Amino acid sequence: MDFIALLYHLRDEIQRVNRGQMQSGAQPTRTPQEAVDKLAEAARAAMADPALRARLTSLGQQIPPVEQQNAAALAAHTKAEIDKWHPIIREAGIKAE
User: Fold this and answer.
1) Domain spans of the chain?
2) Within 10 Å of residue 36's Cβ, how many Cβ atoms?
3) Which pLDDT tens digit goes with each residue over 20-67?
4) 21 in helix, strand or coil?
5) Is residue 24 within 8 Å of residue 74, measured between CB atoms?
6) Residue 4's CB: how many other CB atoms inside 10 A?
7) What is the pLDDT of residues 65-93, one digit of tens each?
8) Which DSSP state fits 68?
9) Which of 68, 71, 58 is nearest to 21 (CA)?
10) What is the reported pTM?
11) Is 61 helix (H, G, I), strand (E, B) or coil?
């Protein structure tokens, strides 16, 4: 991919990403599973509230379907995003500072 094509691709992807955002929660590694389950259930319950869903959607949040509101779905989504963006970032020579 030449540099100009890469810039256009990045512009298009940034516009796509800016149209929606996704939030997730994480806990320290040693958090008891019971606590993790309670937090996940509370988050799912909150996401079921129509007023909260409307507010978050108006702010650009993407709320996944309830069957995707779990750790496995988040891990799959995160892996897909890394697999998509890593080659683009590597090819562009972008480095964290």
Assistant:
1) 31-88
2) 14
3) 556 677 778 888 888 888 888 888 898 899 999 999 888 888 888 888
4) strand
5) yes
6) 8
7) 888 888 888 888 889 989 998 998 999 88
8) G
9) 58
10) 0.58
11) strand
